[in-house]
Specification:
- This protein has 275 residues and is of the alpha/beta class.
- It has helices at 15-27, 51-58, 79-87, 104-109, 116-129, 148-160, 188-211, and strands spanning 2-4, 10-12, 32-35, 66-69, 94-100, 134-141, 165-170, 217-223, 231-234, 240-243, 253-261, 268-274.
- The strands form 4 sheets. A 5-stranded mixed beta barrel has the order 8-9-10-12-11. Strands 5-6-7 form a 3-stranded parallel sheet.
- The longest helix has 24 residues, at 188-211.
- The radius of gyration is 20 Å and the shape is globular.
């Protein structure tokens, strides 16, 4: 949707072009679309439009049941957009917001355009408007200048947030970047240790998020599975649900009662209520 077009430049299609694509997807049987790209919150810079305007236009496309917004920077996640998603039928209560670090010192070294206070406000706003929303967060560990104190500060900040899951990445050196001028390289074994701590934190938060929804009934968009394996699908707020395989349910939204975890702990077992 919004893609790099050479060093330092980006491009995007027009709202009308993307609405037309969504309509074609609906005509072909598509029910869910994920809005993705590079810096999607900056959509419209090359066309004089806005990402919020795109979201409003897509919300009017008949046939598409669900939209999900992929990674959007916290400083570009407008309160108006959060409020719109909260009252939209088609845009799901599902956000993916990159934090990168819970240390303001490290965020400044990364030259991010936001700080932890702004990030916390965005999470709080989402929770106020959509208490059951899924909030995924990107984090990078082991960047140059991330001291043990900075990492501990980051860990504690992330632990304090009411989020659903972390996507954890280890920093890798890139030749020719300004980051190489920063002192304090983190050894590989220490990057691994920090990554594991955050992954364990993520597992705990995701488990708690899933558990809070056991017993509820939600629509699940089911997906085709291999013969002999259960089918899976997702609730509006991105809880993975497992049900017995039934080819007739492929690409259908089915009301499902959420049971306990499956044997691997990767999904909730669903009881189909209305087929």
């Amino acid at each position: 949707m919004y893609h790099p077009d050479g060093p330092g430049r980006s491009r995007n299609g027009s709202i009308q072009a993307l609405v037309d694509q969504a309509r074609r997807a609906a005509e072909e049987g598509g029910k869910e679309i994920v809005l993705t790209g590079v810096n999607i919150g900056d959509f419209g810079k090359t066309t004089g439009e806005t990402f919020f305007g795109l979201v409003q236009a897509l919300d009017e496309v008949e046939g598409i049941e669900r939209y999900r917004i992929s990674s959007i920077e916290p400083d570009l996640l407008q309160d108006d957009l959060i409020d719109f998603v909260a009252r939209s039928r088609r845009f799901m209560p599902h956000f993916h917001v990159p934090l990168q670090s819970g240390s303001d010192t490290v965020l400044r070294l990364m030259r991010r355009r936001y700080d932890t206070a702004l990030f916390a406000r965005k999470v709080e706003r989402i929770r106020q408007k959509m208490p059951h929303a899924f909030i995924g967060v990107d984090v990078i560990v082991g960047t140059r200048g991330e001291t043990e104190a900075c990492f501990r500060q980051s860990y504690d900040f992330i632990r304090s947030l009411d989020i659903s899951q972390l996507h954890v990445f280890s920093y890798s050196e890139r030749p020719g970047t300004q980051a190489l001028k920063i002192d304090g390289a983190v050894p590989p074994q220490e990057k691994h240790r920090r990554s594991q701590l955050l992954l364990d934190l993520s597992d705990g938060k995701l488990h708690d998020f899933y558990r809070r929804h056991i017993g509820q009934e939600m629509p699940v968009l089911l997906e085709r599975s291999k013969p002999g394996t259960p089918m899976h699908g997702f609730t509006p707020n991105y809880i993975r649900v497992e049900v017995p395989r039934n080819e007739a349910l492929d690409n259908r939204l089915i009301t499902t009662r959420l049971g306990d975890f499956n044997s691997t702990g990767t999904a909730l077992v669903g009881e189909l209520k209305h087929i």
